[in-house]
Design brief:
8-stranded parallel beta sheet, Rossmann fold, 7-stranded parallel beta sheet, disordered C terminus, Helicase_ATP-bd, alpha/beta, globular
Length: 449
């Protein structure tokens, strides 16, 4: 990020910290605003305009002024609501007075720490920070498992003001003394509910105990579960609660259709839906890593260019598959819920639920990958007789019945008996356990902004 004129910085002074474990000042109503009304620096506004954004989303309109004022935030927002900008923009703004072009690492300590549950989400957040801050001299880096650690260590030693990380990888860097958290002024816990689901609480507690007590903390979660409220009451100071989307909300721009299909016919159904609808880019969700790999192999046999991403794939393999998918070289990206967390594919036309998720809230997360930024999209779900209970739970959550149709297959299904996609246990089970298992292979990836 290049340097911006100091005179264009309009930072709002931080409010004094007051220890208060009670949730307060809940905000739920939409706020009419434009980005230039927040007092953001011209260099940041320029970057926002270059990204094509003119009007803030509800979470941005409500959260940005609060973060700029120095308040802790407890925000409930789904993926796809623009929450990344709701914290990355004010972080950049608040750090601008300390931006400099010095070559000395001591002049570039970690001042903002953003923690995410998965590599993909970390990389996506880092890309946003880079895009919004490219006209400033603030530095950022992202660290997560699965790639060579040495380049990241070198980057951290040169100094970065904004660090995006998965918890386990960050602790590795702390142990290697390549990450010093003693000057962190702002902390973001992004998708905190998912971090707790994946068993990261012990790592989070270790990290939080390493940070200065006088800091601003922003917590974002899809839901305010009792566990999330307990975490917030322990580590947040008099937070302002912002709720813009309940976990059962679905995008009106997404057409949702359920097809009543026998389990053994699901693969043929996917192929037929791709062909009949002319879909050249679709994410197909499976409930397990094994099922995702099997389905990708079988789709290839049926002439569909496919690739699987899940927790057993190396980070390099996952990045290569995702890049190929974005370039249009892969038609079907077969994914598990954890692996797909944080994926942001512009104008994705459709998602297919090969397996209905065991957790109804995962359905909302899945279909939120399409129909973004005002575009339309299709969410096509395959429901076998033994998944009727899951379908009922989804309809209960979203408070409306789904359109259930019968799909007449053009030809008999192949691989009926030996290539079933879904298996109970799923990705989440594979992501639990020790910290080394959760961060998978323990590499890093760096980004200089």
């Amino acid at each position: 990020m290049s340097a911006g004129p100091a005179g264009l910085t309009h930072d709002v002074p931080a409010a004094p910290f007051e220890r208060n474990a009670t949730m307060s000042d809940s905000v739920a109503k939409p706020v009419d605003a434009t980005f230039d009304q927040f007092g953001l620096a011209a260099d940041i506004l320029k970057a926002i305009a270059e990204q094509g954004y003119t009007t803030p989303t509800p979470i941005q309109a409500q959260a940005i002024p609060v973060v700029l004022a120095g308040r802790d935030v407890m925000g409930a927002a789904q993926t796809g609501t623009g929450k990344t900008a709701s914290f990355s923009l004010p972080i950049l703004q608040r750090l601008l007075p300390q931006a400099n072009t010095s070559a000395s690492p001591a002049r570039h300590p970690v001042r903002a720490l953003i923690l995410t549950p998965t590599r993909e989400l970390a990389d996506q957040v880092a890309a946003n920070v880079h895009a919004y801050g490219k006209h400033t001299s603030l530095r950022s880096a992202v660290v997560f498992g699965g790639v060579d650690m040495n380049p990241q260590m070198a980057e951290l030693r040169r100094g970065v003001e904004i660090l995006i990380a998965t918890p386990g990888r960050l602790l590795d860097h702390v142990q290697q003394k390549t990450a010093n958290l003693g000057q962190v002024q702002m902390l973001v816990l992004d998708e905190a509910d998912r971090m707790l689901d994946m068993g990261f609480l012990p790592d989070l507690q270790r990290i939080l105990n390493l940070l200065p007590k006088e800091r601003q903390t922003l917590l974002f979660s899809a839901t305010f579960s009792p566990e999330i409220k307990k975490l917030a009451s322990t580590y947040l100071r008099n937070p302002q609660t912002i709720e813009v989307a309940r976990s059962n909300s679905t995008n009106a721009n997404v057409t949702q259709i359920v097809y009543d299909v026998a389990e053994g016919d699901k693969q043929a159904a996917v192929v037929q839906l791709l062909r009949d609808r002319g879909l050249k880019q679709v994410i197909v969700f499976c409930n397990s890593k094994i099922g995702a790999s099997r389905l990708a192999r079988n789709l290839e046999r049926d002439g569909v260019v496919a690739s699987a991403i899940h927790g057993d794939k190396s980070q390099i393999e996952r990045m290569q598959a995702l890049d190929a998918f974005k370039r249009g070289e892969i038609e079907a990206l077969v994914a598990t819920d954890v692996a797909a967390r944080g994926l942001d594919i512009a104008e994705l036309p459709a998602v297919i639920n090969f397996d209905l998720p065991f957790n109804a809230e995962d359905y909302v997360h899945r279909i939120g990958r399409t129909g973004r930024a005002g575009a339309t999209g299709d969410a096509l779900s395959l429901c076998s007789p033994n998944e009727r209970k899951q379908l009922a739970e989804i309809e209960k959550l979203i408070k409306r019945p789904l359109d259930v149709q019968t799909l007449v297959l053009d030809k008999p299904a192949r691989h009926r008996h030996d290539e079933r996609g879904g298996e109970r246990g799923g990705e989440r089970g594979g992501e639990r356990g020790g910290r080394r298992e959760r961060d998978e292979h323990r590499g890093t990836s760096a980004r200089r902004t």
